[in-house]
């Protein structure tokens, strides 16, 4: 019994390790690779596409609905002045902005700070934050 107990205690190694493959709040963004992986997910939301249902419907024409180029079959509540920040159902852009602000505030601890790749990635982060603010501005008007 003593031999088995001794084996159990010697078989363990340091259990106070940071999880691998998971972004930790204790030491986030320890490399430009982690920053790139974090930023890459915003290309799905922060870049206009012309695929099926782009801009809310109808492929390439979807972005033109309710513009001076294309009229919609339904009355747009935004154009009637009924859409505002106070009655918005969901503001996903705020979630994206909060997540990007987390990156901007914590990327300064990266050992590769100041490198060309680091500066490029931070430029992308600032672009996406501006894009989400612009999207909200174009949908809701002046932001509080």
Could you explain the architecture of this structure?
The chain has 144 residues and is mostly helical. The chain has one domain (30-42, 51-140). It is 41% helix and 0% strand. The protein has four helices and no strands. The chain has helices at 2-11, 32-40, 92-106, 116-140. Helix 3 packs antiparallel against helix 4 (116-140). The N and C termini lie far apart (68 Å). Residues 51-55 have low confidence and may be disordered. This is RagB/SusD domain protein. InterPro entries: TPR-like_helical_dom_sf (IPR011990).
For this structure, the quaternary state is single chain
Fraction of residues in helix: 40-55%
Distance between the termini: 68 Å
Radius of gyration: 23 Å
Largest sheet: none
Query: How are helices and strands ordered from N to C?
Result: HHHH
| Whole-number total of structural domains | 1
Question: Would you spell out the secondary-structure blueprint of this structure?
Answer:
Blueprint lengths: L1 H10 L20 H9 L51 H15 L9 H25 L4
Helix pairs in contact: 2-4, 3-4
Summarize the structure.
Helices cover about 40% and strands about 0% of the residues.
Which characteristics define this entry?
RagB/SusD domain protein, TPR-like_helical_dom_sf, mainly alpha
């Amino acid at each position: 019994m003593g031999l088995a107990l001794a084996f159990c205690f010697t078989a363990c190694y340091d259990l106070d390790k940071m999880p691998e493959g998971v972004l930790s709040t204790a030491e986030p963004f320890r490399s430009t690779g982690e920053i790139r992986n974090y930023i890459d997910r915003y290309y799905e939301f922060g870049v206009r596409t012309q695929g099926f249902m782009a801009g809310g419907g109808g492929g390439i024409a979807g972005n033109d609905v309710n513009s001076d180029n294309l009229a919609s079959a339904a009355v747009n509540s935004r154009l009637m002045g009924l859409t505002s920040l106070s009655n918005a159902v969901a503001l996903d852009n705020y979630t994206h902005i909060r997540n990007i602000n987390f990156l901007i505030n914590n990327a300064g601890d990266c050992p590769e700070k100041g490198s060309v790749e680091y500066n490029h990635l931070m430029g992308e982060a600032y672009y996406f934050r501006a894009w989400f603010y612009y999207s909200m501005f174009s949908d809701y008007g002046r932001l509080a």
